[in-house]
Amino acid sequence: MAHRRNQISIHGIVKARRASILLASVASGLLLSACSSIPGISSLVGPAAAPALTGSIGTVVADEPQAALVGHDVLARSGNAADAAVATALALGVTLPSRASFGGGGACIVSRPNSPAESVSFLPLPGTSAGGDRPASTPAMLRGLYLIQHQYGSVEFNDLIAPAMNLASNGVTVSRALASDLSVVRTALLADESARAVFGRGEAGTVTAGDSLIQQRLAGFLERVRSAGVGDLYNGALADVYATAAQKAGGRLNDEDLRKTLPIQTVALTTQANGLTAAFLAPPADGGLGAAIRYTTGASAQGAVASWRASGATDIAAAQAALDSGKSGSGSLPSLPASTSFVVTDRNGMAVACSLSENNLFGTGRIAGNTGIVLGASPASTPRPLLAAAILRDRRGLRAAIAASGQNDAADAVGEAARAVAQGAEIAHSGSGRVNAITCASGSACHGNTDPRGAGLSAGTTN
């Protein structure tokens, strides 16, 4: 690596604060004012006695509160935005397995001061084995997060696994976000014995908001990844374990499918106007193109993506040309899969905006054996989700980091929120898109903004 990694030690993240996490899980849009939202953990960087940072340390905004708190604590203990984003995504794999399971994937845009923004896509592949009644996707999440940490982070990746592992082992409080998703798929999910053992309660019910959810098998899987390394899931013995478990669950995966699952890192799509540089996720995360066209023209992002997909184009040069042309395109998309989003900024001006998906709510609805992972749905069986995110800067620094969920409306929501920032207006939370954003007045403080209609959390610290 080009720079020395600091060492992180993160332990005891759940039990000491069960009551406060429950309070956070039912809050919406809460802005934390403590400099470390989960006391009782050892210091993340440096000696155990080192104090947490004070003053403005950055912000994390996510759809699930406990994951946002994990990311916030990484910022409070000297981690940068990439460290916090990876920790948040790993925690979401435990606290929101309906949309961010380790069996799925996603995409992130990363922007550092005085450097071009870059796009990292880690999209799952379909399984290629014959048979099976519930085709699954390959687990792209961990490989993508590892790349982000390796390229942009300041600490060791394995150390950031600890909070998620502890959450799975000690238990999380079921948030309103997870409880809502469970209510939608309850009957289908409970049909799988392994899923029922994790999420079921009573004869025909599932866990509800405020319940404790313990996932010991998932904790064991994360411990294996932490000790053996991420590569074990794609090229080692763990790959064989996962593929075999997926096949038993009807998933059609094999070891070669996992080996071929690789993240893609490119420059971001960019556009400049009125002193602002706006960067968007690049293909294969084509929701970024739709959001960029909505931002520049006001036209439908969904229509632009429909035209893009119909064209058969896939490379970033073609996407940038489509954006530069000013043509909006038209068309419609089928009903698209559920997703979740989060954004992170740090005290040094780095920003990360991510969108994650399993290609279906709770993926295939089945769990990969003793790994405890909810299998993502095969992209060969479902439409691709609209993964959309954007980061805006001006000559003074960061203006906004934006990401959204909302199925077909996610890209339009990101584009419209970016237009509001450019016009100096408030982000309007309307329509089906759900925006998570961090906005910064030119040359002054930044503030988190989550959709008040959801159950998300803005965790930030300013003095």
From TrEMBL:
Pfam families tied to this protein: G_glu_transpept
Membership in a protein family: Belongs to the gamma-glutamyltransferase family.
PANTHER family, per database record: GLUTATHIONE HYDROLASE, GLUTATHIONE HYDROLASE PROENZYME
Protein's name according to its UniProt entry: Gamma-glutamyltranspeptidase
Organism per entry: Gluconobacter japonicus
